[in-house]
Write the structure tokens for this entry.
Amino acid sequence: MIIGVPKEIKNNENRVALTPAGTQELVKNGHTVFVQSMAGAGSGFSDEQYTLAGAQIINNAAEVFAKAEMIIKVKEPIEQEYKLIRKDQLIFTYFHFASYEPLTNAMVESGATCLAYETVERSDRSLPLLIPMSEVAGRMSIQEGAKYLEKPLKGRGILLGGVPGVKPAKVLVLGGGVVGTNAAKIAAGMGADVTIMDINLDRLRYLDDVMPKNVHTMISNDYNVRELVKDHDLIIGGVLIPGAKAPKLITRDMLKTMRPGTVLVDVAVDQGGCIETCKPTTHEDPTFIIDDVVHYCVANMPGAVPYTSTLALTNATLPYAVRLANKGWKKACSESAELRNGLNVVNGDIVYKAVADAFNLPYTDVKKYL
Ligand SMILES: NC(=O)c1ccc[n+]([C@@H]2O[C@H](COP(=O)([O-])OP(=O)(O)OC[C@H]3O[C@@H](n4cnc5c(N)ncnc54)[C@H](O)[C@@H]3O)[C@@H](O)[C@H]2O)c1
């Protein structure tokens, strides 16, 4: 198969979808790999490293898209890429369709096959291609939150871990999944007083077992959220309903009840956000303030630590990419429910229910194509 790796062009996105090691693996399996010049530069990989691994370097994105049967990317295509995607091409990347209708419409019109990293799902409901980025974003949410709690950055001016004789900051983590667990772990390690909320009692039981003593658990409901936001310094949004828009757990009216300088980090912003007042921001301008509450809502947090993120992401995506390249998407998806769950759009049809429902668009059973 001919595989294309374009350079990511989303604001401050420095990750790349394939490393030289991954290139070597695909070439070893008999495939041709075209990498756009400088695609790996932001993650520390030179064109020469890709060439040595067996890739052919191409100067512009249009040519990469034109040549490739399968495009491997990191972020969803943005407007200037829509027109480069063609019918019957396989696009393997993060899409997060439910949060952006124009992207959904563009991919429906393109006729391409869109296999979304974020909905590849195992039988135990875990999301193997979301996990590594959630691990990065969860850990990073505390690093960023701690920074924006500093007074010059408009925060409350509180040190996460406190000092002897002074209480630590209070951190509230909404969602005890991968983002939430990694956030809680780092916050706890820094000495904060941490509470994790989830609707899944079994998950809370597990977290209660494995987390250190400064992490508490609480069931998530509107009453409890309203109470806790009043005295927490840093609030992390990490809830997810797979493939669907995130539920709004923090509503506009709650901001007035928070203390000035409270920091909200809505990691779930890529699924529409679980904080009503959050709108996607970029690494160039990551925060905004409403009612004296600092909002950090960067939709591609791992993009700021590309070295870690690229390696973490490609460790997880490569085995799937090799399978798709070796068998073609139809055979690979027929044989594997895990990969089949990743199919969101095929030949102009939306084959992922939650995406169709998000925009009241028609849904087609994927069986039509397999
Ligand atoms: N901004 C970024 O750069 C970035 C990076 C990685 C992941 N994410 C996003 O972070 C979000 C969380 O990802 P994850 O991997 O942790 O998901 P996950 O499935 O591991 O965890 C989500 C948790 O939310 C819980 N939940 C659902 N509804 C809830 C509610 N009403 N109250 C409390 N908890 C609730 C679930 O029970 C689950 O435990 C996703 O939207 C993901 O796309 C964003």
Observations:
- The two ends are 19 Å apart (CA to CA).
- The pocket of nicotinamide-adenine-dinucleotide is lined by residues 118, 130, 133-134, 137, 174-180, 197-200, 203, 220, 238-241, 246-247, 249, 267-271, 299-302 (CB under 6 Å).
